């Protein structure tokens, strides 16, 4: 079919800028015809191809053949809007051409749906377009079957498939991003449920992915489109507010532009371009949410961009900007000297322009291409080939995500999702290896986080670190531009104490995995003790070795009862989960035995099942899992909240278990054997728990400031159980509040709400005295 389409004269020969589709019984009326607008670049290629009697270069030949096959294969198919389906692959190809993708990638964009939606086989694609296009189309077809939802296991598995495809040839994801962008542009034709699902996965997966690959051209529009459909009211309000003040803003921006242009010319700079651009809506809204501010309080809704001819001119232009306007301290970033891992380079600074803050970006033309189009702007993607092999260091994060399958972690769905979010979203600290490579890490990362980012074995055998050639503690937070050297020893092993200061999910997961493997006997015993304490000793050993327990293990995706006990002992499974599934299996067996008329055994199983059911119900009411049947208390030294990682410590004497935050300093001196893995009960929907939190607020000493703070908390439904104020002449007042909160996220919102008040100088969470 492909050859016939490419090599034969068709009745719809492409000679003009539009094609009139033949009438089709699937259309709304027999006489209805649609016009398909062909992008000018494609029209030119097609016309040149026909005029020169099909003897153009192979790249043009590839694109013409791909268009004709796509046009014929999709003929008669309609989109949800009622338009001909060919509009979609044309739009995808146009987006790929816009970011400078190669002919093979553009051809794959035209053909990306023909295998899934028509009768064309992959073998036909390979015969007519070559192996490279076939591999790209196959990769996109596989990604087309991936849909993300709220089920952790399915989402993790789908993401694994995506990153495996990326590791094979990252250009597959270029096509998928273009496909997603056009689908988001036309999402209004879908039902509400599909719109929300697609928009949410666009925001959570595809927009961060475009950012990680440096394709800002796609990222900004994907974010804004997702914002439009997920928060329609906020989107409309913000768009209206921006439109109202547009003329004033443009007037101020033009004055600033003209002044800057004059000063740049006076300094001797030539061949530069200076433009003003509005920030995209989602970026402005995110800043408003993050800082708890209204639109009128956000000043930098526009930015200046200066594009010059070379790197030296970038720094010269920066000096002119700082001479023209007063720079804002702490807002300068040099991504030219220290590029981001995705290749982004630019100088960023913020200045006070026309009485308002304004952001200025300075870069060269080539840097601008990379900033807009990311990996697609790099020569190797235009020439073909996979970055997985040709630029391995730059895509080290991708290699690590794929390694999860090789290390046997296919069941650690939550861990995998956490690592993906860590690697997809913006990094804030950039450090340098002994070889001069730049590695991006989450802000606050330590030497251990860095070591595990490089490789699992380096982390597992890390025993020291040099920062800027000086020996430093492993817990030292890394700063931008630090030179890092990891010292290793084959006899060194991870310490659970590291969990108190590492911040990246990758490091935390690797430490826990090592501990699980090296302390298996200990965790099995702990899991067995937890289960025996809950069920009782009578018949416990026979129950452990029963078929019911083995089936429970298999239902938990574990190979044996020992694996089940180990997972329970380490905290991978909760006691509530095991008891519930055990109760279900016993119930099934009871029915089977009843059918066999073995009443005595059935009665015994029913009693055991009732006992498990009762205790399981009681367990479900506890806000913390892992302490079932034990006395425990929340540590006042750190006052943990749901949403924070916690650990239990066995107190000496008769004080039971104390629940701490994992990063609590009081946990460090406690031996490992007195630590108990615990977690917040995610299934607890019965209790409306409020946890006491102490806040220390430094404010300007004026009459009524405490009342204003209490009123703001009252408006948010937050109860204050204790409040006191300390004042000293000529110094800020100190307010200590004890508030009842439900979660860690509520704590952050509360702090942000108080911090946004004009009289508040500082606010911090402290231990309860």
Automatic annotation (TrEMBL):
Protein's pathway: Purine metabolism
Gene Ontology biological-process entries: guanosine tetraphosphate metabolic process
InterPro entries to which the protein is assigned, alphabetical: ACT-like_dom_sf (IPR045865), ACT_dom (IPR002912), Beta-grasp_dom_sf (IPR012675), HD/PDEase_dom (IPR003607), HD_domain (IPR006674), NT_sf (IPR043519), RelA/Spo_fam (IPR004811), RelA/SpoT_AH_RIS (IPR045600)
Keyword Hydrolase: yes
Domain HD, chain residue ranges per copy: 85-184
EC number: 3.1.7.2
Record GO terms (molecular function): guanosine-3',5'-bis(diphosphate) 3'-diphosphatase activity
Record keywords, A-Z: Hydrolase
Pfam family, one: HD_4
Residue ranges constituting the ACT domain according to the UniProt record: 694-768
Enzyme class: hydrolase
Occurrences of domain TGS (ranges): 426-488
One Gene Ontology cellular component annotation held by this UniProt entry: plasma membrane
NCBIfam families hit by this protein: spoT_relA (TIGR00691)
Family: Belongs to the relA/spoT family.
PANTHER family noted in UniProt: GTP PYROPHOSPHOKINASE, GUANOSINE-3',5'-BIS DIPHOSPHATE 3'-PYROPHOSPHOHYDROLASE
Role description: In eubacteria ppGpp (guanosine 3'-diphosphate 5'-diphosphate) is a mediator of the stringent response that coordinates a variety of cellular activities in response to changes in nutritional abundance.
Name of the protein this chain belongs to: Guanosine-3',5'-bis(Diphosphate) 3'-diphosphatase, (PpGpp)ase
Organism name: Prochlorococcus marinus subsp. pastoris (strain CCMP1986 / NIES-2087 / MED4)
Taxonomic path: Bacteria, Bacillati, Cyanobacteriota, Cyanophyceae, Synechococcales
